[in-house]
């Protein structure tokens, strides 16, 4: 009983941890009692956040729905705001002021399916709304059928069946005695009930522990985990009944002499086990290869998002469009209003210290935008030395941007150029031959209708292959990851103090809309400048740091899953080596007492698994063409074989007398 119960407990724990990792990796570790979710995406226009949040609150009350919104609080920790709270739960934030610095874009989780009225109302603000029920019930399909790791999970079930059969065959002689006494049927029924009881006991203990760990049984994380563990337990239950049935038929049909000599049944099990080890080792190698690629990619993305920590106190400003209120009958903007407004923006921008503002914008003549221009205009730009490929490398920034990059990349070199100029071009040494073309692009974009010229720009060569963090906070998820870092960027640090001409003042309007500013002083600066079209602030780092937290959770799940699969693989090898050593223990003990060499006996018995490991290594190499993965997997398993063989041999030598007497549990 203890061997069967131990085996069942070990596999239940392994599957429990593997399921935990799978739920996190699947993204269902949602700690709210949610049934559905919707995402909001700002399509690019100015959005009144107060109005949006008020609408969500009104809709939540109208349809009696709780809406949960994760955000980063003022302490930099992840918190949750709940619309239409039903009870005073201190784990949720209910003060709407805490949410006003957050972006409206992001995920919202609801306690019921999202009504159509939510979509219609929120789309009226120019937001893109995507809503769906949370498919937490699909996690067993994902876990068991959708990827390479699923094969490893089924291999684990296969090994459980072999392990349980091997344990039961250890008691075959005892079962044969019960058979001769006519009691085998009753004993087998008792053993089946014991195995089922052990499964249910482990299931209840694991679930109770997980519910206590979460502090609730109603959130999506708990429901998903309970479902997955329930499915896994049912599979183990089916395997347990099947193995007991096979074992019963084996005892009833095999001749007693075969059982007493421990021959056909054991040989069959060992060969099936070898096939299982070959499959599981190959699958583990392929899973390891893919998992390492995914882990490396996630780690790289997390490293990129971590850099936003240096700007977590910065925010973008949403401005109301006040132009339409100052148009005449011909839709022309009032000139006096425009002049006054640009002057206010100039005062606003120049009131910030350089370290309190970050400006980062690509050239308007890059390949992505120039390709959509009419052909004659493209030819004209090219004739003026404006090359789209070169323009794609240009980034317009301010001094604060350069200082933040010095902080992020301490080894970067920016020289000591004179700051008494309209701008500094930091150009990589491998682009120096294009200096005049860069000057032409900058002059065309910024100085075209002013007295400033390209010669007013200072050129500062910098080492090639320097990385630059772009502080890009716009675009979809793919853009946020792929356009955050750039190697060999041509940085143009503009000095707006020199933008004194009327033709240049529109630059201040652009910087106010694109730049990000130190959040704690924005309101004061807006008031001082006399700007009245301020709408709201959005902490730019929040959305990206939330994404970092999500990636961290998925990365943790992947590492847990990979670790458990590795432990399972070690357990498979352990069970096989233990069975082999039990099989040849008596022969080893006798050889030792007679003073004969017994290393050949061990090598001969372990030769099949050595060959199987070699075959698996070849399979993994052919499918991945990645020698390091092959050597890693093959080396780890060969090391385990060596250690297990030496430990088992030492145990045989220590207890050889008991083994010769027939004590098979001594090894």
Task: Pick out its properties.
667 residues, transmembrane helix, 16 strands, alpha+beta, 23 helices, five-stranded mixed beta sheet, 3 domains, 59% helix, five-stranded antiparallel beta sheet
Structure notes:
Keywords: Membrane, Transmembrane, Transmembrane helix. This is ABC transporter permease. The chain contains 23 helices and 16 strands. It starts with a helix and ends in a 7-residue tail after the last helix. 59% of the residues lie in helices and 12% in strands. By secondary structure, it is an alpha+beta fold. The protein has three domains: 230 residues, no CATH class; 98 residues, no CATH class; 146 residues, no CATH class. Helix 1 packs antiparallel against helix 8, helix 5 packs parallel to helix 20 and helix 7 packs antiparallel against helix 8.
Shape: elongated
Side-by-side strand order of the widest sheet: 3-2-4-1-5
What integer is the average pLDDT? 81
Q: How far is the N terminus from the C terminus?
A: 18 Å
- Beta content comes to 5-15%
* Number of separate helices: 23
Q: Assign a percent range to the helix content.
A: 55-70%
Query: What's the domain count?
Result: 3
Low-confidence segments, given as residue ranges, are: none
Which structural class do you get from the secondary structure elements? alpha+beta
Radius of gyration: 34 Å
Largest sheet: 5 strands, antiparallel
Strand segment count: 16
Transmembrane segments: 6-23, 151-171, 192-213, 225-247, 268-288, 555-577, 606-625, 631-652
Protein name: ABC transporter permease
Keywords: Membrane, Transmembrane, Transmembrane helix
């Amino acid at each position: 009983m203890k061997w069967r119960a131990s085996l069942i407990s070990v596999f239940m724990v392994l599957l429990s941890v593997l399921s935990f990792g799978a739920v996190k990796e699947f993204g269902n570790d949602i700690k709210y009692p949610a049934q559905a979710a919707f995402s909001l995406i700002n399509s690019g226009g100015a959005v009144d956040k107060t109005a949006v949040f008020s609408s969500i609150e009104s809709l939540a009350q109208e349809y009696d729905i709780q809406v949960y919104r994760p955000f980063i609080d003022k302490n930099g920790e992840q918190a949750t705001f709940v619309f239409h709270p039903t009870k005073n739960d201190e784990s949720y934030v209910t003060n709407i002021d805490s949410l006003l610095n957050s972006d409206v874009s992001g995920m919202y989780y609801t306690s019921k399916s999202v009504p159509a009225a939510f979509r219609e109302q929120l789309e009226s603000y120019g937001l893109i709304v995507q809503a769906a029920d949370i498919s937490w019930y699909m996690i067993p399909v994902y876990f068991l059928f959708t990827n390479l790791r699923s094969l490893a999970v089924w291999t684990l079930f296969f090994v459980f069946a072999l392990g349980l059969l091997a344990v039961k065959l250890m008691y075959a002689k005892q079962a044969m005695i019960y058979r001769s006494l006519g009691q085998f049927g009753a004993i087998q029924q008792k053993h089946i009930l014991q195995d089922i009881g052990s499964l249910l006991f482990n299931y209840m203990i694991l679930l109770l522990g997980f519910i206590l760990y979460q502090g609730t049984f109603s959130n999506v994380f708990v429901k998903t985990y309970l479902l997955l563990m329930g499915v896994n337990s049912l599979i183990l239950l089916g395997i347990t009944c099947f193995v007991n049935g096979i074992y019963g038929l084996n005892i009833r049909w095999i001749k007693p002499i075969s059982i007493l000599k421990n021959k056909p049944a054991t040989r069959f099990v060992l060969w099936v086990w070898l096939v299982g080890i070959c499959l599981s080792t190959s699958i583990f190698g392929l899973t390891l290869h893919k998992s390492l690629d995914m882990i490396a990619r996630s780690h790289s993305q997390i490293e990129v998002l971590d850099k936003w920590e240096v700007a977590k106190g910065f925010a973008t400003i949403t401005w109301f469009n006040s132009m339409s209120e100052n148009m005449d009958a011909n839709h022309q903007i009032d000139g006096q209003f425009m002049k006054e407004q640009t002057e206010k923006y100039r005062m606003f921008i120049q009131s910030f210290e350089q370290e309190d503002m970050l400006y980062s914008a690509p050239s308007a003549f890059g390949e992505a935008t120039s390709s959509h221009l009419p052909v004659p205009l493209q030819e004209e730009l090219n004739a003026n030395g404006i090359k789209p490929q070169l323009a794609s490398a240009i980034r317009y920034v301010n001094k604060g941007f350069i200082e933040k990059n010095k902080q992020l990349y301490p080894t970067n070199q920016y020289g000591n150029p004179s700051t008494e100029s309209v701008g500094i071009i930091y150009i990589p040494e491998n682009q120096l031959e294009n200096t005049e073309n860069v000057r032409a692009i900058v002059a065309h974009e910024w100085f075209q209708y002013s007295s400033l010229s390209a010669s007013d720009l200072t050129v500062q060569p910098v080492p090639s292959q320097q990385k630059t963090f772009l502080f890009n906070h716009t675009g979809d998820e793919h853009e946020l990851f792929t356009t955050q870092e750039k190697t060999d960027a041509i940085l143009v640090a503009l000095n707006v103090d020199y933008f004194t001409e009327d033709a240049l003042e529109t630059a201040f309007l652009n910087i106010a809309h694109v730049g990000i500013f130190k959040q704690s002083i924005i309101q004061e600066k807006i008031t001082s400048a006399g700007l009245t079209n301020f709408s709201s602030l959005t902490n730019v780092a929040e959305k990206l740091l939330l994404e970092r937290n999500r990636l961290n959770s998925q990365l943790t799940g992947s590492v847990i899953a990979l670790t458990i699969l590795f432990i399972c693989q070690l357990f498979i090898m352990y069970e096989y080596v233990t069975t082999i050593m039990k099989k040849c223990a008596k022969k080893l003990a006798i050889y030792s007492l007679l003073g004969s060499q017994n290393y050949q006996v061990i090598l001969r018995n372990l030769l099949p698994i050595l060959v199987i490991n070699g075959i698996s290594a070849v399979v993994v190499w052919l499918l991945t063409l990645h020698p390091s993965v092959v050597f890693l997997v093959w080396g780890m398993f060969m090391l385990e074989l060596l250690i297990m063989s030496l430990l088992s041999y030492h145990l045989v030598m220590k207890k050889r007398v008991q083994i010769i007497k027939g004590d098979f549990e001594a090894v």
